[in-house]
Design brief:
The structure is a single chain. The protein is mainly beta and about 400 residues long. The protein has a domain of about 100 residues. It is built from one helix and 28 strands. Strands 3-2-1-28 form a four-stranded antiparallel β-sheet, with no helix packed on it. The protein has a four-stranded antiparallel β-sheet with strand order 4-5-6-7, with no helix packed on it. Strand 8 and strand 9 form a beta hairpin. The protein is globular, with a radius of gyration of 20 Å. The structure holds 2-acetamido-2-deoxy-beta-D-glucopyranose (10 copies). One 2-acetamido-2-deoxy-beta-D-glucopyranose binds next to loops. This is 3-carboxy-cis,cis-mucoante lactonizing enzyme. Keywords: Signal. GO terms for molecular function: 6-phosphogluconolactonase activity.
Amino acid sequence: MFSLRGIAALLSLPLVANFVNAAKHKAFVGREGAPDVFYTVEFDDEALTLELAANTSVPTPGGFVAFNFDKTTLYSTVQDYGTNGAGSTNLSVPVLTSYSIDADGNLTPSGELYATSDNADTFGSGVWVAANFAPPYEVHMISLNKDNKSGHIVMSVDANGSLKETSQTFVFGNTSYLHGGTFHPTMKWVYILDVDQNMIFTYSTNNGSVEYVANFTLPYPVDGPRHAIVHPNGQKLYLVTENSNHLAAFNIDLETGLPTGEGMVYYSMLQEGEDASLFWCSEVMLSPSNSLLWAANRGRVDGRNGSISLFTLDDEGEVEKQNFLINTTTSGGLANLVAPVLFSDRYIALPDLEVGFVEMWELAEDNSTATIIAHLDLADGGCCENVIWWS
Ligand SMILES: *[C@@H]1O[C@H](CO)[C@@H](O)[C@H](O)[C@H]1NC(C)=O
Ligand SMILES: *[C@@H]1O[C@H](CO)[C@@H](O)[C@H](O)[C@H]1NC(C)=O
Ligand SMILES: *[C@@H]1O[C@H](CO)[C@@H](O)[C@H](O)[C@H]1NC(C)=O
Ligand SMILES: *[C@@H]1O[C@H](CO)[C@@H](O)[C@H](O)[C@H]1NC(C)=O
Ligand SMILES: *[C@@H]1O[C@H](CO)[C@@H](O)[C@H](O)[C@H]1NC(C)=O
Ligand SMILES: *[C@@H]1O[C@H](CO)[C@@H](O)[C@H](O)[C@H]1NC(C)=O
Ligand SMILES: *[C@@H]1O[C@H](CO)[C@@H](O)[C@H](O)[C@H]1NC(C)=O
Ligand SMILES: *[C@@H]1O[C@H](CO)[C@@H](O)[C@H](O)[C@H]1NC(C)=O
Ligand SMILES: *[C@@H]1O[C@H](CO)[C@@H](O)[C@H](O)[C@H]1NC(C)=O
Ligand SMILES: *[C@@H]1O[C@H](CO)[C@@H](O)[C@H](O)[C@H]1NC(C)=O
């Protein structure tokens, strides 16, 4: 027998998803360099189509992208590995660019800032960026030069989000290979992940003043943390690794912000019998309800297909199970970064750089698999890297 509440849930959920919310949702697409354009894509949640909504010419080749707290500014690293002659870009020094976003989602360049420090010229190019969502909204970038140094660079911003100046740099020697990070939901701490040292560095971010707190070494066999995300309860960190190809989850101390490693669980992101050295995990993201966790890996060589995996979480953010691990249709190139939409748990975007496209995947009703429902070719040599949903 159905309870009244059960019937209400059955009736209202599809109504919300299919009718009340029927809309087009915009996302910006990060890149791996030239040509100097930014793509805006649009997902129609009724027709289930993905289209190119805007192709904006910009002064600098784009990279990994992130929003500020109210999505009125987009920050982009400049990831051009020498294929583009773009005038203003000095590739020996990490560069960050900012774009203001108007109410319709149009981009206007609003700043370009080179990291400044005694040895910034050994930092290589920016590979990851995220803005603090708490005042004064400083922006954190990771830069990487595999032959010498990595940097964690902090840049201050004006009230309108435009980049102002390099406020701090943290230099890492060539035993490090920084490649990603994430904020604690309180915005009091930022975690920077080091693939080669198998470490997480915790920094406090007090009113724009960033301080190193401690490092945490991941336990064997979890190896090579690349990207991470923290549950909104602030007590569970999820990460994916480049070397061992795991999804790992463990506790954070809510008082100190430090990862404790307690309650650690980990799952393989490799298909049966696959060799870890041929894959490197790319991304981990929560669904909007925080009850599902998406993760992905990619092949290190073209033709070696990547995978998408889904995990079910309980109310506390504990991983209950790995629902599936299914192949993507390409290696993903340097991309395959899953990007759940904001309005539903049922859809994710998946960008690819081997061929150059963005796809939409839909989760099956019983959460047992996902299928491609829309595909947009964007094969220009530099697209695509990450996708960030604006609406
Ligand atoms: C975007 O614009 C550029 C420059 O105008 C053009 O060369 C390119 O073909 C466009 N890309 C797409 C996917 O339409
Ligand atoms: C943002 O604010 C700064 C400082 O007031 C100003 O110099 C800059 O022109 C502004 N940028 C935009 C895009 O409005
Ligand atoms: C690039 O940056 C380096 C290090 O700051 C500097 O020495 C060099 O002059 C810059 N080159 C250009 C073309 O701006
Ligand atoms: C790391 O730096 C040291 C000191 O500069 C150098 O001797 C070594 O060759 C570097 N290693 C790599 C892998 O670049
Ligand atoms: C850093 O690595 C780059 C190549 O990626 C090389 O050109 C540069 O000389 C290196 N700098 C130092 C200080 O070792
Ligand atoms: C944050 O720093 C700014 C200047 O850097 C200062 O004016 C402000 O009072 C500080 N706020 C707090 C809460 O400490
Ligand atoms: C990690 O922390 C330990 C303990 O404080 C310290 O001895 C070590 O130098 C740190 N390692 C790095 C790479 O920061
Ligand atoms: C997924 O890819 C693996 C190779 O990594 C292959 O062995 C397996 O057959 C593929 N599965 C499907 C359903 O295509
Ligand atoms: C990768 O996926 C494509 C599309 O599903 C398939 O045609 C191809 O055989 C797969 N490659 C491997 C090595 O599994
Ligand atoms: C599928 O996931 C949703 C969360 O989006 C959850 O509400 C639902 O119970 C799950 N269904 C099954 C069969 O596990």
